Amino acid sequence: MKVATAALAERVRKDFPALRQTVHGKPLVYLDNAATTQKPQCVIDAIVGFYQRDCANVHRGVHLLSERATESFEEAREKAQRFLNAGDTREILFVRGATEGINLVANSFVKPRLSACDEVLITAMEHHSNIVPWQIVAGEKQARLRVAPMTSDGELMLEEFERMLGPRVRFVAVTHVSNALGTVNPVQRIVEMAHAKRIPVLIDGAQAAPHTLVDVQGLGCDFYVFSGHKTYGPTGIGVLYGKASHLEEMPPYQGGGDMIRSVTFEKTLYNTIPYKFEAGTPDIAGAIGLGAALDYLRGVGMENIAAHEAELLRYATGELSQVPGIRLIGTARHKAGVVSFTMDGIHPHDAATVLDHEGVAVRAGHHCAQPVMERFGVPATLRASFGMYNTAEEVDVLMRALGRVKEILG
Amino acid sequence: MSELKELYQQLILDHSRSPRNCRVIEDADAMAQGHNPLCGDEVTIYVKIDGDRVSDISFKGNGCAISTASASLLTEVMRGKTREQAEEIFRNFHDLVTGSTQEGAGPELGKLQVFSGVSEFPVRVKCATLVWHTLKAALSRLKETVSTE
Question: Nearest-CA residue of chain A relative to B62?
């Protein structure tokens, strides 16, 4: 069965060299995009190009190579600014990934504002990386981490969330798209509700940035984070967007080179934002590779990607729903391209081993979201997550491979 | 596909569907909990000791077919064994599933040989060995208890 937007996958697949391989003698069907995405050739070329021609440190040398490296690095920052529709490049910090971005905000922005009995509010569908940093800073300040509940479909209970925005809440951190369930949260509403009570908001966009248009000015959020490697870019690089007014007043996260204006043993003057938060030599090649990935996404068009993945999600959900013994975990009305499910009497790890032998790469496990698994009463799920290059035919391969799982293990 | 058949042999599937000795021993002399945070497998081992021998052994837990079958077969094999024998079987079993078995070694593994296919699946080795590490922890705890008394 063909989907309307199949032409998109057809067009982009040739750009991804990793997709042209067989595993266990079968063509690779890569459905683990929520874990990480494959990289287009232009990203690989950008990284290789940096190391072959422009390799030098940034913001330091007066020599030509350093100039070129600095220029490419700062261009990548501009690309990230456009990608998020941020108002100013000074609001774009390069970090190792979404996780480091959240830790930076937890330590430099939230911790100084917390007192005993204050609260940080998150949701029941967060990834561990949007739980643990808050637990740590809350623990240090005898503050409390509170969790807004979700329905059995995996939707945030918005009224309950609003009710929990009490006078002790100092910060809200919420995922844009759930990695384990695929739920798209109404982040615009969430920001409005929190801001009505003057509570700043961080949005974890790790699972949203590769799939949908993000407009941080439109959302009005205070902070937004995403990871390069889930956005068709390299590992080890990510972006933290923060409102300039917040970043200006925040203390540095780490000390070192590049983040200072002048140092004596008595006193250090910090650099301006964003450099105040970029201590040490950054992942220059990573940032440049990410810049190439964001260019690529722009070329393909986020709306096209979103439409294509929505078709795949609809098709896969329909197919899986027809199989007796398969239970879908996460059936929110508004979802991104993630299908999480269990099979009666078959553990996800056993199923994933059989799928792997059919060439199908999926994730089996708790997806770093153990509280989500607990909420649904399952130790683990199978998760197929789609990227721009996946096709309806690949969903068909998945379905046949699930038949094979039943044959061997059922 | 033969590798898969080798991994999921009938005996393994049978033990994963109907695990033996899957119960709590209320007056166990030793128990230990094992957890594989990577995949969420959990197992608790209960042991009763008579002198130096395992007189009763059971487990509770949840996990994949490999880890459940491994726990089930472990309890069958370990009953009546001395602690020294238990350690030797563990060594041989570990060699078997990691593919480092010496020629002619491990005749006492008996039906545990059914796990030989695991060695072709390196990421599944931990599934097979979790309960064994847990048993080792339970027995060493027992030693500590004995030595302090």
Answer: A379
Are A131 and A125 spatial neighbours (Cβ–Cβ below 8 Å)? no
Q: What is the model's pTM?
A: 0.93
* Structure tokens given for A18: 């990793």
Q: What domain range is B139 assigned to?
A: 2-148
- Provide the CATH number for the domain formed by A44-299 in this structure: 3.40.640.10
ipTM of the complex: 0.88
Task: Please tell me if residue A359 touches chain B, with a CB cutoff of 8 Å.
Answer: no
> How many residues would you count in chain B?
149
- Provide CB contacts within 8 A for A308, sequence distance 6+: A3, A5, A8, A9, A388
Q: CA B121 → CA A353, A386, B4, B89, B99, distances in Å?
A: 9, 26, 9, 21, 10
Which residues in chain A are classed under CATH 3.90.1150.10? Answer: 6-30+301-409
Q: What is the CATH number of the domain that holds B127?
A: 3.90.1010.10
Active site residue A42: no
Distance from the A352 Cα atom to the nearest Cα atom in chain B, whole angstroms = 11
pLDDT, tens digit (0-9, with 9 covering 90-100), for A248-275: 999 999 998 888 888 888 888 889 999 9
Q: Do A379 and B4 touch (CB under 8 A)?
A: no
Hey, are the CB atoms on A409 and B8 less than 8 Å from each other?
Answer: yes
Domain count, chain B: 1
| Residues of B (4-43) whose Cβ lies below 8 Å from A | 4-5, 7-8, 13, 17, 38-42
The active-site residue out of A42, A117, A221, A368 is A368
Question: Into which CATH architecture does domain A6-30+301-409 fall?
Answer: Alpha-Beta Complex (3.90)
A:B CB pairs within 8 Å: 45
Judging by beta carbons within 10 Å of its beta carbon (0-12, 13-18, 19+), is residue B145 exposed, middle or buried? exposed
